[in-house]
Amino acid sequence: MVRVAALLLAAGCLSCLAGPSSARCLRGSRGVAVAGRGPNRRVARQAPASPKYDAAFITQYLATTYERDASAACNHAITAEWEYITDLTNSTKEAIYNEASLSLAAFEKEQWDEYFQNLDPEEYEDPVVRRQVEFLLSLGVSALDEQELKDLNTYELRMQNVYSTAKICPYRKQRCDLGKEGYELDPEIESVMAKSRDYDELAYTWKAWHDASGKHMRQDYKNYVALQNKAAVANDFENMGHMWQAGFETDYFYEDMQDLWDQVFPLYEALHTFVRRRLRAFYGDKMGEEDGLIPAHILGNMWGQSWINVYDLVEPFPNASSYDVTKALMEQGYNPLRMFRKSDEFYTSMGLQSSNMSYGPKAVIEKPRGREIICHGSAWDFCDRKDFRIKMCTKVNQDDFRTIHHEMGHIQYYLQYKNQPYMLRSGANPGFHEAIGDTIALSVDNPKHLKAIGLLKNYEDSDESSINALMKMALEKVAFLPFGLLVDMWRWDVFAGNVTESEWNRHWWLLREDIQGLRAPVSRSEEDFDPGAKFHVPGSYQYISYFVADILQFQLYRALCIEAGEYRPDDPTSPPLHKCDFYNSKEAGAKFSKGMALGASVHWSEALETLTGETELNATALLEYFEPLHRFLREANGDLEAEASPVSEDDASSAATTATTTAATLALLLLSILNRYL
Ligand SMILES: *[C@@H]1O[C@H](CO)[C@@H](O)[C@H](O)[C@H]1NC(C)=O
Ligand SMILES: *[C@@H]1O[C@H](CO)[C@@H](O)[C@H](O)[C@H]1NC(C)=O
Ligand SMILES: *[C@@H]1O[C@H](CO)[C@@H](O)[C@H](O)[C@H]1NC(C)=O
Ligand SMILES: *[C@@H]1O[C@H](CO)[C@@H](O)[C@H](O)[C@H]1NC(C)=O
Ligand SMILES: *[C@@H]1O[C@H](CO)[C@@H](O)[C@H](O)[C@H]1NC(C)=O
Ligand SMILES: [Zn+2]
User: Fold this and answer.
1) Are strands 518-519 and 294-295 parallel, antiparallel or unpaired?
2) Residue 532 carries which DSSP code?
3) Is 620 in the pocket of ligand 5 (CB under 6 A)?
4) What is the Cα–Cα distance from 63 to 362, expressed in whole angstroms?
5) Catalytic residue at 181?
6) Which of 359, 411, 516, 561 lies in the 20 to 30 Å Cα band around 238?
7) What does the entry list as the binding residues for Zn(2+) 1 (predicted)?
């Protein structure tokens, strides 16, 4: 699974299948030694002993025995994991899964001990073999001893179980029989957060969820951090945050993320200001004193990571056309299977491969009855080059339609790189995996395309309707950016020990206020553990990938649009970027396929060059896409400021001053945190 944007992100997904010893995860944290002064370099290794086998032998071994045995061990572990994750309360399956993941770890450790630990990549001339050797030098969490691995598994599974089975009583019946009347996150709690406009009901639901989930995890998380760090140290990293970052193979990863955030910050701030004022117009004094922050529970989403569900409150031009895909899907009698087929059809229209096996009989595309399952959408690669599956509790609505495209992007990537060797069957970096399906979704979720496929009728294209459409997209993609950044900023600090356990929750809220501009709806303390109320924290999935993907997908989209002849950046008569649809473009498909097929066989900057001609992450394409909206927001925010004064004679000037000051304070806060981390 990989992310859902807000929506895609919200739904979230993981390309690295969970479990401490899952092969995917080990590869997600490839410990390539990086040169330079970056934060994620490995600490100096002791001079290695000379390797037991020569380069010719290892080259042959990797292509034959290792390829076969590693794929089989991975397949075995992933299958056991699937069985368990789709039937959480079956303790036999849990035991089988535990056993399988330990045996995969044992396999990897044996192989490393015997063949890989002392290899010298420099001895390998073929760059593709050299890369495999570099990845194989790192043992990942399999470096822990068996008891430690078992313990780590226990902590992770217990946290995931708490998360997946947490229930709360409904607002209107706060003492209830949880077993019979309790709400689960998906679908009831998420639905309340999305649809309720009752400030107190939202606050109650927000708090109840945090009480039922994260609050029970602190001790396990503490133990988890200690063991993760131990594994990182065994791999010559200072801590697990560094090891995660090393998966991006970039010397100055942290600084690069800061630079990208700097680049998009003015757009986020403009959106934040606009939305905050509209919410205040709706909720009034309920929102508390105007301090430039938005209460975290009124944005239509538990984590404030997607604001699409409050579109009705912030629609720029109520009289212009807007679009409601949910309604159209309902009216046309779509069911989950038909939504998947529709998505598959988009991919194949570009000449890409059909993913139909991924939503066939072995997959789970609707919430099963009678068993507990982790509903969070995910896309699985069973390591045998033919079995790929999606697990998703699909609902018929626009959000899930977009999430389907997202998950199908993972499957498409798996299919495209399936002929790479075992060690290189992975995304160019973890952000790439999250970006593929979202790139497609940008082309799908666009009035022009929706009209073409019959999901949009009576739509009148105008400047105003374009701003409405861009606002919808921004409520997903722009609103997500700070959250995408801060989850791992928090974890990096935790892994590094830069924040002590007694301040974990405080630190979380510091980041949420300073970066996201949101404040807790009710008072928080160190009795709480709010990061644990977000799936990826107990699930141990890296999160910065979604931030990277949020930016990267616009680079990819722009490049495919140019390839399809739908966008001409230097031509003033070109339609704007946000109107591009590369449906049916075999040219765009061929380009996409070429980049995806590389898998992890080259450094991501090379894959990016194949895909876009660029070699660096850059938010310029995102800003280009949202440019008309950004202009609208700047004007609207300015106008509103001018209008704000004549409200009440007495307070007018002081109110206006306060508003300005708080806006400035927020900007300062945001800047100060950046400096703190530079
Ligand atoms: C639990 O899983 C095992 C192994 O797949 C199966 O044999 C058993 O019937 C399952 N138990 C229940 C209660 O479903
Ligand atoms: C929208 O349309 C309504 C009814 O047609 C009209 O009263 C209103 O002034 C319009 N609003 C704007 C902002 O154009
Ligand atoms: C999936 O697609 C392949 C190739 O297009 C086709 O042969 C196969 O019958 C399809 N399978 C299903 C279950 O639709
Ligand atoms: C985090 O801790 C490390 C080592 O203790 C220190 O070098 C680094 O400056 C700290 N970073 C921040 C942002 O406080
Ligand atoms: C981003 O791209 C723009 C134009 O494509 C370029 O001018 C700018 O220098 C790039 N920024 C970075 C940090 O690479
Ligand atoms: Zn994903």
Assistant:
1) parallel
2) G
3) yes
4) 30
5) no
6) 516
7) 406, 410, 434
From the CA of 355, the nearest ligand is 3
Atom of ligand 5 nearest to the CA of 263: 13
Distance, in Å, from the CA atom of 561 to the CA atom of 557, rounded to the nearest integer, reads 6
pLDDT, one tens digit per residue, over 248-305 is: 999 999 999 999 999 999 999 999 999 999 999 999 999 998 999 999 999 999 999 9
Nearest CA to ligand 3 atom 8: 356
507 lines ligand 4 (CB under 6 A): no
CA 318/CA 237 separation, integer angstroms = 54
Q: Report CA dihedral (391, 394, 397, 398) to the nearest 10 degrees.
A: 0
What is the Cα–Cα distance from 422 to 67, expressed in whole angstroms? 6
**In this predicted model, what pLDDT tens digit does every residue of 15-28 receive, in sequence order?**
232 222 232 332 32
The structural domains of the chain, with segments of one domain joined by +, span 55-137
179 CB burial (10 A radius; 0-12, 13-18, 19+): exposed
Q: Which of 229, 489, 493, 498 to mutate to test the pocket of ligand 4 (most atoms within 8 A of CB)?
A: 498
* SS3 state of residue 381: strand
How far, in Å, are 141, 201, 484 from residue 304 at the CA level?
Answer: 32, 16, 11
Is-above-0.85 flag for pTM? Answer: yes
Cα separation, 533 vs 171, whole angstroms: 19
